[in-house]
Specification:
Length: about 475
């Protein structure tokens, strides 16, 4: 009997190994008829050939993969059986002592806090705002969490949730079906959300539909109104200062929305392939990254009698797809993750951006990048999260640790300032906490990572903690 059990265990291991190997081969496969399955991890690998990477002004930073400093990194929810009596489809598994977590005087310890595990559906998008966490998956649900417990939620009728942006009491969700849906928070007492519209509005869409001049050709023998995405909305970024929302899509266009009246101000054919990331930066710049292997910088300028976005510079041209972008606004630095496993970065030098080098830390594609003060986090298809620190003086980055624990590719990251949980901060996998002007050694961050293993993991990070480890 014991032998039969061992054989069955070996068969299960072999089956699991084969499944993962097959998934890895799909990561770099060419697009097929099903756009979601073929492009989930590679960011829709581009078929376009392009010029070589820009000249390296500094050497590549080679790091050795290490394990996390947390003693609980190996505690995966997959190794624990879920109770059949749990009503919620998510399970909270705290990994730190609750007394330590609630103590006001406790140090910010680097490591894994806990996991939110969904019984079905990959995690494609995350957004944090104050003490609330929003999660989007292919189940079409947007779940809302508070203190690692289910707080509320809402559901769209079609299109998995690929990107989420929070702006005050409104939540914008970008979907696989090409729609941007708008939701409103009805208050803490009701803990409910209501759909209040979409981008574009129904009124604007009808107006453009009856105007022949409002149509653009998107494919042979197919014309659509220019104000609406006709393919998956893969990314969004918010410019709160100007009241603008940017949306990027697999239809290769970048659209600019005015939040005050939900008007689509511009539609720019920004790339030759799918746009995988857009992020509002510094000096009025907006950056886009695409499966065509390019990173482009745009700025809104007065052209004739109207303001339009013009291409300022193409920062990167390569064969590998650009999958994600993040910006350190305080240091005026741009980071771009790509399917070759590298994170390229550029730094402002007087009136232009200079290529700074590349961060090497992953064996497979980088799928998401986030910034927290001087920390840079990169999530990868190799199931790990590299934590880098930008040293004073710029240009030099050191790999502090590698966070492990996910059983699938890390698809999205978002960061929240732990010391300002009550603030109304808007965060996405493309944004940085704007309040980081204090001493970074005292800064503590809550990092959320979403994975295709159907889980969200919660980490606590601080530069002070890393310094303490390094001094030992």
């Amino acid at each position: 009997m014991a032998r039969k059990k061992n054989s069955m265990g070996e068969m299960l291991l072999e089956k699991e190994s084969f499944r993962r190997t097959k998934f890895g081969t799909l990561l770099y496969s060419e697009p097929v008829s099903d756009p979601e399955e073929s492009n989930t991890n590679s960011g829709r690998s581009s078929n376009a050939s392009s010029a070589p990477s820009p000249p390296r002004t500094s050497s590549f930073y080679t790091t050795t993969t290490t394990t996390t400093n947390s003693p609980n990194y190996f505690m995966s929810p997959w190794n624990q059986s879920a109770s059949p009596y749990v009503k919620s489809p998510w399970i909270h598994q705290p990994l730190l002592d609750s007394s330590e977590e609630s103590s006001e005087n406790s140090d910010c310890k680097n490591g894994l806090i806990g996991s939110l595990v969904r019984e079905e559906g990959h995690i494609y998008s995350l957004a944090a705002s104050g003490d609330l966490l929003y999660t989007g998956s292919d189940s079409k649900n947007i779940r809302v969490w508070k203190n690692l417990k289910e707080y509320s939620g809402f559901k769209s009728h079609s299109g998995l949730v690929k990107t989420i942006v929070v702006y005050g009491d409104k939540i914008f969700t970008g979907h696989q079906d090409g729609k941007i849906r708008v939701w409103k928070f009805l208050g803490k007492k009701r803990k409910a959300y209501k759909r209040v519209g979409s981008l574009p509005t129904i009124k604007d869409y009808i107006k453009s539909s009856i105007n022949p001049k409002a149509y653009v050709e998107v494919r042979r023998n197919r014309n659509v109104p220019w104000i609406r995405h006709f393919d998956a909305v893969s990314c969004m970024s918010l410019d709160k200062e100007r009241g603008l929302l940017y949306s990027g899509s697999w239809d290769k266009t970048l659209k600019v929305w005015r939040l005050s009246d939900s008007k689509c101000l511009e539609s720019i054919t920004a790339h030759y392939d799918a746009i995988n990331s857009v992020v509002v930066g510094f000096d009025g710049l907006v950056f886009t990254g695409s499966a065509d292997g390019t990173v482009k910088a745009w700025r809104r300028e007065l052209v004739g009698n109207s303001a339009k976005h013009v291409l300022v510079e193409t920062l990167l041209k390569q064969d590998n797809a650009v999958t994600s972008l993040a910006v350190n606004t305080m240091a005026a630095t741009v980071y771009a993750g790509s399917s070759d496993g590298l994170v390229n970065f550029w730094e402002r030098q007087k009136h232009f951006l200079e290529y700074g080098g590349a961060l090497r830390g992953h064996k497979l594609a980088v799928l998401c990048v986030a910034v927290a003060g001087n920390l840079v986090l990169s999530g990868s298809a190799d199931k790990s999260i590299c934590v880098w620190r930008r040293e004073e003086g710029g240009g030099v980055h050191s790999c502090l640790t590698v966070l492990t624990g996910h059983n699938g590719p890390v698809k999205c990251l978002t960061v929240e300032d732990y010391s300002n949980d009550d603030d109304d901060n808007d965060n996405n996998d493309d944004s940085e906490d704007e309040a980081v002007v204090k001493n970074n050694s005292d800064q503590c961050w809550t990092v959320y990572s979403g994975s295709l293993d159907n889980s969200v993991k919660v980490w606590r990070l601080s530069e002070q903690g890393f310094n303490a480890y390094e001094d030992m």
